[in-house]
Write a structure and sequence with these properties.
The complex is a heterodimer. By secondary structure, chain A is of the alpha+beta class. Chain A has one domain: Ubiquitin Conjugating Enzyme, CATH 3.10.110.10. Helices cover about 35% and strands about 15% of the residues of chain A. Chain A has four helices and four strands; from the N terminus they run αββββααα. Chain A has helices at about 5-20, 110-120, 130-140, 140-155, and strands at about 25-30, 35-45, 55-65, 75. In chain A, α3 (about 130-140) packs across α4. Chain A is globular. The N and C termini of chain A lie far apart (about 35 Å). Among the domains of chain B are: about 1-70, no CATH class; about 550-660; about 660-805. Chain B contains 52 helices and no strands. In chain B, α5 (about 75-95) runs antiparallel to α7, α10 (about 175-180) crosses α11 (about 185-205) and α18 runs parallel beside α21. The longest helix of chain B is centred in the middle third of the chain and has 40 residues, at about 485-525. Classes of the chains: A alpha+beta, B mainly alpha. The interface of A and B includes residues 20, 36, 55, 135 and 139 of A. Chain B: Keywords: Nucleus, Transport.
């Protein structure tokens, strides 16, 4: 890991601990020897109140590449997570996490977390990443809503 | 615009509280003049206008700003500065002479100051090429301003010379102090100008590059003047307070604002320029001001402001303060210094200030102080860790002990966390960092007493935080009527303590943490709510420690749990209490806390399920409490629903773990399930379904009495579901729920992969035989029930989905494993054909095809190409042909279906009737599809066609011949589609191209050479693509080659 990456991640950790949106959590994972792995974080994204997602806190892992912040982190939900813009592997398809699209080195963990929370209830049908949720969202809203509510129970707050 | 009067009229209209309807027109008219070559003249006239209002003057200043931004070169910059400074000096002098009358002009003065700052930046930026006629340097706007404003008189006609003279003039320190000391107003304007320049500079540098020269000029000139003025003012504030406690000067706000601006700038400039802008002297005086107080009157006039300034510095750039300053702050804040044994008297201020804030309930200020102190502590965290625990430092241990004592006291503030005090909240971060730092230390560096010292210290931290995170504090927050954000903040605080506890476990281990928590929970006999809150806090932490522990492999931990007398009783009591208090009539606080009580207790119960199952009585108690509690739920409100969900999840978890041990509970479960699935029952559909799954787990493991006994229980459950369905033929939701219950039952009957049920394994042949024969005819019963429901709801996709799930349950298991829903291929096909005949294809067909795919996967070995041909013609090319052709989703489902066969038994597809007549020509056409998932499926199809390891020799020969014949067309179609595809879909095509070139290298080169030129006239790009693809093996390299070609042929810029 470059010193720039390390410095920035320490900064991100500090900033997050001091100020993060309520209901969210994010922390670096531990390596096998018990030391902190700043390049891999575990986080929880709560569903927004007043949406189908409200009852859940959805777990994600955030992996920072060695050349972060030049390159964006990779954010993953559990494999099979039901959402039109989440790949079957769980990887999030979001423009601010795409190096070729809207990623900027100044984007913070807080912005990423809030961006993902927004994405939950505002999927982008033009950028489908998985078939079942995308198809249901586009063609069968009732089925889509049923599955989202069911999933929220699995990840209940 | 003809004259000044007209301009003034328009400006007044523009700023009028009731603007005219043509405001946009006015705005545009004025903007045109502002940008024109007459702009400077207009600005000057507006600012000179004797009877002009503040609006008119402000518009004049604004016009100067527009002129400044319109001029990209430095042409006329001197004229502009002259006009600007003339009026700035004029207005400043007016304000100095009569502040009360000219106070409203401050807005104009500020704008003119900002204009001056912009000129200053432009003149000192490296690319400035000032024309010879106006060549001049300007290094210190502040001094120029002071000199101009303190001039006895200013004559506009002589101003050019005056300004030129003052632009390069410097003021000795004494004279400068004398000048600003002579007038409060001049002093305040000078501070304001310094603040404006430096704030604008922070904004200016963010949009420009190469401003280090400008920073250098600021450092050499403006910084010296400004710090002189600020320090003088800060000292005057201190003197004024010391001399006359009651008198408060109006200046402190201006000074602190200016100081803040300079701190922000210095933080930024440190990384952008050479040289360090030292503000130590300023900080020294600020610290003195912070500590100024009159304890008799409870007066701390500057403490809050300075604490906030210092807090910002510690949080953002603590090294701005040098070591000596940090040491002195350490003594003030903590009363003790890590490095020396001296005791500081200045700590008295801290004690009195905290006392003042607590007594007067100034909790916001207390929070500010906490932020400042903890951010300060974080700076030296590693140092503290080394000094405490390693041999690296031979510090005075008594002093360190004292230091730690202060930190512990600070954590143990006796107020309600979040609501009243923030020290404990922020200190959690400090302790976590200290603990992590300790855990990362090399053991060889420890002092002999280190492990004991660490255990003792972190043990105390645990003891401090356990009461802090108790729900009683949450109750106080709710009762205080604060908004929900404080509740969230408290929940966050509890979450942070869990992280801390987890980290401290590495120091304290089970002996000093986990076991202590278990014992403490078990020894309490709760007689009040407070006791229960105490138990809850410990359970909350314990769950975090146990959740990653596999209790079935931790006999020691199970022993500790069993020795802890009332452990389980107390956990269950929390569930009971939560359920008793969840009603809205008990008030909002009781409702919120009941949810927390149930959440903590059910989570812990599920975590210790492996322990619970070993104790028959304990398991019985748990089940009784869970059943009774579930019974109390009626989905009356959100809290009630959530509690029901928590209870259900816990019950499911325990049943899954204790399926064998719960065998004796089967009759009870069946009774409860039967009553639960009644229409009149108030429990949620989710609970009905999960409870049926629980029941299924127990039946699945109920094997000791042979398959007949198991079948008997199954029949009972199925009959209950059947009766429920028959009794409510019109209740769509109820029937759907019951079918989902059935599906859950079927899933629960799939044995777990790691099943160690010896009784079952020894009777496996009997079970296989039994379910093959199915004497109770449960399969028939099920199928009849499903058909009967579908005779009414056969068009409804949700019913198709759930019935397909039921019918396909056995298909997830291997052939030998018994299951009561083991339908034959014929039964499944008949079922699917009936569904296909009556479904609405766009919503129902996908579910039917999913099951069909499972059937082919399971029975593929016994199928013939004719069978496959029949499936294809019936499900896709029969009555639904048009729908499949017109609906890209259905098209994609069909392709995916064919792909699944190509992956398992490709011969079935390759030799079926439709292979050459339909599949190859149509799937070729689908290559040009625009839908991502269709592209993904169809490119996968062609990839599998050109390269398939599952092909038999016969398949291979057949397909090779077909691909060779189709090659030119296939390549042309794929490349055309690729050229017009979205960038994010390119990889699908490049995977196919890679496979094609790997398997047909000679032919594909020719096909590509033929296919590419007609697509676009870019032979160089085509040639490059072919060359690269032919020598490329890796997926990434192929993708890059394709991307490069795609960008090139679409006229898009190449990636660098």
């Amino acid at each position: 890991m470059s010193s720039l990456c390390l410095q920035r991640l320490q900064e991100e950790r500090k900033k997050w601990r001091k100020d993060h949106p309520f209901g969210f959590f994010a922390k670096p994972t531990k390596k096998q020897d018990g030391s902190m792995n700043l390049q891999k974080w575990e986080a929880g994204i709560p569903g927004k109140e007043g949406t189908l997602w409200k009852d859940g806190v959805y777990p994600v892992t955030i992996e920072y590449p060695d050349d972060y912040p030049s390159k964006p982190p990779k954010v993953k939900f559990p494999a099979g997570f039901y959402h039109p813009n989440i790949y079957p592997s769980g990887t999030v398809c979001l423009s601010i996490l795409n190096e070729d699209q809207d990623w900027r080195p100044a984007i913070t963990l807080k912005q990423i977390a809030l961006g993902i929370q927004d994405l939950l209830d505002s999927p982008n049908p033009d950028s489908p990443a998985q078939e079942p949720a995308w198809r249901a969202f586009s063609k069968n809203k009732k089925e889509y809503e049923r599955n989202v509510i069911e999933q929220a129970k699995e990840y209940t707050k | 615009m003809n004259d000044l009067r007209q301009a003034i009229h328009l400006i007044e209209a523009l700023y009028s509280p009731h603007p005219p309807p043509n405001i946009n027109e006015i705005q545009q008219q004025l903007q045109t003049v502002q940008r024109s070559e007459h702009g400077l003249e207009l600005a000057s006239q507006l600012l000179s206008h004797e009877a002009g209002s503040v609006n008119v003057e402000y518009f004049g200043a604004l016009t100067l700003a527009v002129q400044l931004h319109t001029k990209t070169a430095h042409d006329g910059l001197g004229d502009l500065l002259e006009v600007n400074m003339l009026h700035l000096a004029k207005l400043a002098r007016l304000f100095v002479s009569n502040p009360s009358q000219n106070g409203s002009r401050m807005v104009v003065i500020k704008k003119l100051m900002s204009n001056a700052a912009q000129v200053f930046f432009r003149l000192n930026s490296p690319h400035g090429t000032v024309p010879p006629a106006t060549t001049f340097t300007w290094k210190n706007p502040l001094e120029t301003f002071c000199l101009l404003t303190s001039e006895s008189s200013i004559h506009p006609e002589a101003f050019h010379d005056t300004l030129n003279h003052y632009l390069s003039q410097t003021i000795p320190y004494d004279h400068l102090i004398q000048l600003i000391g002579s007038s409060n107003e001049l002093n305040s304007l000078t501070l304001l100008f310094s603040e404006v320049v430096i704030e604008d500079l922070v904004k200016y540098q963010s949009s420009k590059v190469g401003v280090s020269h400008l920073h250098g000029v600021v450092h050499e000139h403006l910084y010296i003047t400004s710090t002189s003025i600020m320090n003088y003012n800060l000292q005057q504030i201190a003197i004024s307070f010391q001399n006359n406690l009651s008198q408060s000067s109006p200046l402190p706000d201006n000074v602190f604002r200016c100081v803040n601006a300079w701190i922000n700038y210095a933080t930024m400039a440190r990384s952008k320029s050479q040289g360090h802008m030292d503000l130590s002297e300023t900080f020294e005086i600020l610290i003195q001001l912070m500590c100024l107080h009159d304890s008799n009157q409870g007066l701390f006039p500057f403490s809050e402001t300075v604490v906030s300034i210092l807090g910002e510095i510690f949080g953002n750039d603590p090294t701005m303060l040098n070591y000596e300053l940090r040491s002195s702050i350490e003594e003030i804040l903590l009363g003790v210094n890590r490095s020396s044994s001296s005791r500081s008297e200045s700590h008295q201020w801290m004690l009195q200030y905290m006392n003042h804030l607590v007594v007067n309930q100034m909790f916001d200020e207390l929070k500010e102080l906490a932020l400042c102190v903890v951010d300060f502590l974080q700076i030296s965290n590693l140092d503290v860790c080394n000094k405490l625990f390693t041999q690296a430092s031979n510090n005075n241990t008594e002093n360190l002990d004292q230091y730690i004592k202060v930190l512990l006291q600070m954590t143990n503030f006796t107020l309600v966390p979040v609501l009243e005090e923030f020290f404990s909240v922020r200190m959690a971060d400090f302790w976590l960092d200290l603990c992590d730092a300790y855990n990362n230390l090399v053991r060889e560096t420890f002092k002999p007493e280190t492990p004991e010292l660490a255990a003792n210290l972190f043990g105390q931290v645990v003891q401090i935080y356990l009461p802090k995170i108790q729900l009683i504090n949450k109750q106080k927050i709710v009762q205080a009527g604060e908004d929900d954000s404080l509740l969230h903040e408290f929940d966050d605080f509890r979450g942070a303590i869990l992280d801390l506890i987890e980290s401290m476990w590495a120091v304290l281990g089970n002996d000093k943490l986990t076991n202590v928590l278990i014992a403490s929970i078990g020894h309490l006999t709760p007689s009040s709510g407070d006791d229960l809150f105490q138990i809850e806090a410990m359970c909350f932490c314990l769950n975090k420690l146990l959740v990653d522990m596999n209790l079935s492999e931790s006999p020691g931990m199970c022993k500790t749990l069993s020795e802890s007398n009332s452990f389980l009783t107390n956990v269950l009591l929390m569930i009971q209490t939560g359920c008793q208090q969840k009603g809205a009539s008990n008030g909002k606080d009781a409702q919120i806390l009941s949810c927390d009580l149930v959440k903590t207790s059910t989570s812990l119960l599920a975590t210790v399920a492996d322990y619970v199952k070993k104790d028959e009585r304990a398991l019985a108690n748990c089940m009784d409490v869970l059943f009774n509690s579930l019974e109390s739920c009626s989905n009356a409100d959100d809290i009630d629903t959530k509690i029901e969900l928590l209870l259900t999840k816990c019950t499911t978890s325990i049943c899954e773990t204790s399926r064998l041990e719960l065998a004796s509970y089967l009759p009870t479960f069946i009774k409860i399930q039967s009553s639960m699935v009644q229409r009149s029952s108030k429990v949620s559909d989710f609970t009905k379904q999960k409870f049926t799954r629980c029941l299924g787990y127990i039946i699945q493991n109920y094997t000791q009495n042979g398959p007949e006994a198991q079948a008997q229980y199954l029949a009972e459950v199925i009959n209950t579901i059947k009766a429920g369905i028959m009794n409510a033929p019109d209740d769509r939701q109820q029937i759907l729920c019951l079918l989902t219950c059935f599906s859950e039952l079927g899933s629960a009957l799939v044995p777990p992969e790691d099943s160690d049920n010896q009784s079952y394994l020894s009777q496996l042949p009997q079970f296989q035989e039994y379910w093959r024969a199915d004497p109770p005819r449960l399969r028939e019963l099920t199928l009849n029930l499903i058909e009967s429901v579908l005779s009414r709801y056969g068009h409804d996709a949700e019913f198709i989905e759930v019935t397909c799930l039921i019918m396909g349950k056995k298909l997830t298991l291997s052939e030998e494993e018994p299951h009561f829903l083991a339908y034959s291929m014929q039964e499944l096909m008949d079922f699917l054909l009936r569904r296909c005949a009556s479904c609405e294809p766009s919503t129902g067909l996908p579910y039917i095809v999913y099951l069909l795919e499972s059937v082919v996967n399971r029975y593929g070995a016994t199928m013939t190409p004719q069978d496959f041909s029949f499936m294809l013609s019936t499900f896709f090319l029969g009555q639904h042909r048009d729908a499949v052709a017109n609906d890209p989703d259905l098209t994609q489902i069909m392709i995916t279906f064919v792909n699944s066969v190509l992956e398992t038994r490709p011969g079935l597809a390759v030799h079926c009737d439709q292979w050459t007549s339909f599949i190859l020509p149509e799937f070729l056409r689908f290559l040009a599809s625009k839908e991502r998932f269709t592209i993904s499926a169809v490119t996968k199809f062609w990839t599998k066609v050109v390269n398939n390891k599952k092909f038999s020799r016969h398949d291979e020969v057949t397909v090779r011949e077909q691909v060779c014949a189709l090659g030119p067309q296939l390549t042309s179609q794929a490349m055309r589609a690729l050229l017009h595809a979205q960038r994010s879909d390119l990889s699908y095509y490049s995977d196919f191209l890679r496979a094609l070139i790997a398997r047909y290298p000679l032919q594909s080169k020719q096909w590509l050479s033929q296919a590419l030129p007609p697509l676009c006239d870019n032979n160089r790009a085509h040639q490059l693509l072919v060359e690269k693809l032919l020598v490329t093996r890796g997926s990434r390299a192929a993708s890059n080659a394709v991307l490069e070609w795609w960008l090139n042929c679409n006229g898009l810029p190449q990636l660098t």
